[in-house]
Amino acid sequence: MGFFERFLSVWVGLSMLAGVLLGLWQPQVFQTIASLEVAHVNLVVALFIWVMIYPMMVQIDFSAIKDVGKNPKGLLLTIVVNWLIKPFTMAALGWLFFKVVFADLVDPASAQEYIAGMILLGVAPCTAMVFVWSQLTKGDPNYTLVQVSVNDVIMIFAFAPISAFLLGVSDIQVPWETLLISVVLYVLLPLMAGVTTRYVLNHQGGTSGVDRLVASLKPWSIVGLLATVVLLFGFQAKVIVSDPQTIGLIAVPLVIQTYGIFAIAYFAAMLLKLKHNIAGPACLIGTSNFFELAVAVAISLFGLHSGAALATVVGVLVEVPVMLSLVAIINRTQHWFKH
């Protein structure tokens, strides 16, 4: 691991600070960038995420995907954690903190909206960023693709009914345009580009050409991650500075949820005797969130300036630093999976 990668958490911290400072200094620039969106999917952020995950897509070997079925336990772990555990623990933590622990610090109406935003995050497991986390943990790219694909199919059918049940709302309108555009931008297009690139390179010089390209693109993947962090914190700079207490209150249960779900999934992976390069991505899919979908639903249900929308935004802000810490844990515990 090179110097730049070794201190990635430092660079992310500096990017967060840079994003807030730039957002306060040039708010109009970030407002212009924020307006470049389609169905709540920001095109500039999508471009940087594309830069992040393209190197991993080049590594996907479709001829090896057929072997994924020989080890279904990783898929089973992903499904159980994402859809049978995570949404309900998120709802429980939201109720515990904003109805009990923080009851004297927030008014009941705001507390209810914060809980709603947390629930929407809990019912929206990650689609795009998990490719980045998988690459940083040396995850199996073929297996990760299948895990994400299965997760997306389930999300089409499960997101609305689980959200409706936990929110107590009878009619959840899933923003299909947001969901479909995100999957196309974050998964389908970079996958097609990666497969085409791999095919061309294999026919020109074999696997060595693929390896050289991936090595040359890896720094750009990190640059894409840092640029995304700058944008996300720049978009919310005013909120972060004007209402830090509320941001902190919402962040507490979200952080606990993330580490808690990861612990459940990671120890289950050890009990299932999964390989380390399958266990890592399987756990990270459930711990990270599909924030575009959560934000879009929160805005449509509760309004742009609601507590629910704010809670989903806080989920975006805490995700990258927390996920990087989980990546570090996975990389330092490879010996737990030597079986």
Q: What does the radius of gyration come to? A: 19 Å
What structural class do the secondary elements suggest?
mainly alpha
The succession of helices and strands, N to C, reads HHHEEHHHHHHHHHHHHH
User: How does the overall form come out from the CA principal axes?
Assistant: globular
Number of strands: 2
Output mean pLDDT. 86
Please state the oligomeric state of the protein chains shown: single chain
What strand line-up does the widest sheet have?
Answer: 1-2
Count up the helices: 16
**Proportion of residues in extended strands:** under 5%
Largest sheet: 2 strands, antiparallel
Share of helix, binned? over 70%
Describe the structure.
The protein is mostly helical and 339 residues long. It is 81% helix and 1% strand. The protein has a two-stranded antiparallel sheet. Helix 2 runs antiparallel to helix 16 and helix 13 packs across helix 16. The two termini are 25 Å apart.
Write the layout of secondary structure elements.
Blueprint: H1 3-6, H2 8-25, H3 27-35, E1 37-38, E2 41-42, H4 43-59, H5 62-65, H6 73-101, H7 108-122, H8 129-136, H9 141-167, H10 176-205, H11 207-235, H12 237-242, H13 244-271, H14 276-287, H15 291-302, H16 307-332
Antiparallel strand pairs: 1-2
Task: Give me a quick take on this structure.
This protein has 339 residues and is mainly α. It is built from 16 helices and two strands. The protein has a two-stranded antiparallel sheet with strand order 1-2.
